[in-house]
Amino acid sequence: MRIVVIGGTGLVGSKVVRGLTEHGHDAVAASPSSGVNTFTGEGLSEVLAGADVVVDVSNSPSFDGDASKEFFRTATTNLLRAEAEAGVSHHVALSVVGTDYLARQSGYFQAKLAQEEIISSGRIPYTIVHATQFFEFLRAIAQSGTEGNTVRLPHSLFRPMAAEDVATAVAEAALAPPLNGTMETAGPEPFHIDELVGKVLAYDKDPRKVVVDSEALYFGIKLTDKSLVPGATARIASTRFEWWLTHVPAPPQRAAA
């Protein structure tokens, strides 16, 4: 199949492209750097010519509520319109476990929820993949809660997973028939946010100390133990945290954090 991956040069998208290509499919990475811009519509008709499936793992360049709403509304509308014109038969989008709850307190997640609603009300058969937080995101969580040499985080449950496993789930969804609904995917082990971030900082020999704070917010959101946890039917990934920590290199910017 010819599968166009929007956001195909990013963390997850590049892994989706690689995995699909290794299985013999014509996977095309599309992003502004390759002349494809879903927000402006530039290059869409050209890159979607002959495409069977479109995978959208792109993200808003801004996490501001209003800006992200404008991005997802415009980009998704442009993309679905171009897909209809090209005869695309399946649209796959990556979103987040707990989006419904998170959207109650976050403009960004309101934007993600709006994206999902545009997809589900459109004409293109679709699958929405809800993934839990990436292991690769743990250092950013630490940074978000940093005050001086202290990291204040809630003691909330979550079930994070490796970006490689997210990509595998997205690729498998692209090769399967459309669900016209949502599937969840999550890591193999539940953790508390503060404990897992503490493990990463200890491994990095980072001097910051993690402190549990019942009032601490997760990117502006007050969490419960169910906010970030998938349902019983979630597809469970295989990569365990301890293996990931010791085998997946940290990004270069970690040293400056």
Task: Please characterize this protein's 3D structure.
Helices cover 37% and strands 19% of the residues. By secondary structure, the protein is of the alpha/beta class. It has one domain (2-256): NAD(P)-binding Rossmann-like Domain (Rossmann fold, 3-Layer(aba) Sandwich), CATH 3.40.50. The strands form three sheets. Strands 2-1-3-4-5-9-12 form a seven-stranded parallel sheet, sandwiched between helices. Strand 1, helix 1 (11-22) and strand 2 form a beta-alpha-beta unit. The chain is globular, with a radius of gyration of 18 Å. The mean pLDDT is 96.
Summarize it.
The protein has 257 residues and is of the alpha/beta class.
Span of the ends, CA to CA = 42 Å
CATH architecture: 3-Layer(aba) Sandwich
Total number of helices:
9
Helicity, as a percent range: 25-40%
Record the strand order, biggest sheet: 2-1-3-4-5-9-12
Shape: globular
State which percent range the strand residues make up.
Answer: 15-25%
- What is the number of domains? 1
Radius of gyration: 18 Å
Quickly give the structural class.
alpha/beta
CATH class: Alpha Beta
CATH superfamily: NAD(P)-binding Rossmann-like Domain
CATH topology term? Rossmann fold
Query: How many strand elements?
Result: 12
State the order of secondary-structure elements, H for helix, E for strand.
EHEHEHEHHEHEEEHEEHEEH
Unreliable segments of 5+ consecutive residues: none
Mean pLDDT: 96
Note the main sheet. Answer: 7 strands, parallel
